[in-house]
Amino acid sequence: MYLCVERGRVKHDQVTSNSSTNNMGITNTCFIDHLSFKIDERIGMEEIITNILSLNVDAFIEAYNNECGYNKAYRHRKLALNIYYNDFSDKKCAYIKFDGSACGELTNELQNIIQNAIQHNARFKRIDIGSDDFKGLLDINEISELAQNGHWTGKSHTSDQYERHDKSGESKGKTVYFGSRKSPVFIRIYDKQKQQEQDYHWIRCELEFKKDAADKVAQLIADTDNIGIVFSGIMINSLKFKIPSEDTNKSRWEDQEWWLDFIGDCEPLKLGKKTELNATEEDLSWLFRYSRPLHRLREIGGMDAIILLLEDGKAKAEKQQSFSNRTLSS
What is the domain range of residue 128? Predict the structure, then answer.
């Protein structure tokens, strides 16, 4: 399990130097703020709840919902946790979604849930990892100005901003974005103090991972006892705020000290792009999800049925390739 918890969140004080306590007695924290994944195995609802989520079946009630084509939905009685489920005999699958409040309530169980999901060949749709600054290292207005002036470097190509106001025109919080919501990694930094109308410093920084990036981050979380290592290691590769100089190469500009203090001294983690080898491994993983029906086919028809299935697949692949070649040559 994660090493330290403060205010229902996981501290990353063994990774970053921004873990000291502010004058309100609140410690900087690191946490998972969203988790969703899909399981394609033919697995029963009770097994999902007890074996993967490690929760009580009685804590869920059935609700009508056909979101994303699922014919059943189950929601937790108290938590913002939903399970969307198909119980068709030929295509049983489930989509599990934890909102931020559910992640906060289940902080100490999330690593175990992710490990269980990986064992069931889950495909992670989205994972958000955040870090709260209560110490006063991050100034949202300075971050906004640096973003507007292009005084930053990172994996993203663009930045954007949004600010909410009440009827009197008073700001209710500013958010600075880096990257696109459609990209595998998306960063947002926002003024949680104004959003929640608190009287202490509170800036939140979040990394949002989707699809392949979410799968890789899930494995990193499963393999470590400190989520701060994951947050800091990826963030240091993803975004740096810079001190402008006359050097035309922005990457040689010095880093803002307050940003380095917030991230901390850690080893960079690279998610990397999918290689041909990774694609092959993914194909194999996809095939192994259907090992049970193949085993059943062998029980019913023996190896002759397996060979017949392979020949049918080969014929369809050759037909598809022939069609693709005609399309390219036309």
Answer: 5-274
CA nearest to 81, candidates 105, 58, 64 = 105
Specify the number of domains making up the chain: 2
Helix residue spans in the chain (DSSP H):
45-47, 100-105, 110-119, 140-149, 192-196, 212-223, 227-238, 257-263, 276-288, 291-329
Q: Is residue 50 part of a domain?
A: yes
Q: What is the mean pLDDT of each run of 10 residues along the chain (330 residues)?
A: 33 37 53 95 88 96 74 92 79 88 95 96 96 96 97 95 91 94 94 92 97 95 91 94 95 96 88 51 52 71 78 70 46
**Co-location of 243 and 318 in the same domain:** no
267 and 320 share one domain = no
pTM of structure: 0.75
